[in-house]
Amino acid sequence: MRHTQYLAIVCLATGLVACSSTPPAPVIDRIPASKTTGSTAAKKPSSTTRPTYKAGDWRPDTYTVKKGDNLFSIGLEHGYYYKDIAQNNNILAPYNIQVGQVLKLKATKDYAAQANSDGVEITPINTDGNTLATSAMTAISINEPKAIREPYSDEALKKPLPTAKPVTASAANKAPAANNAEPANKANLDNKPDNKAAYESAEEIEWAWPTKGKVVANFSEASNKGLDIAGTTGQSVNAAAAGKVIYSGSDLRGYGKLVIIKHNATYLSVYAHNSQILVKEGQQISAGQKIAEMGNSDSNLVKLHFEIRRLGKSVDPSKYLAAI
Question: Phi/psi at 309 (nearest 5 deg)?
Answer without folding.
Answer: -120, 130
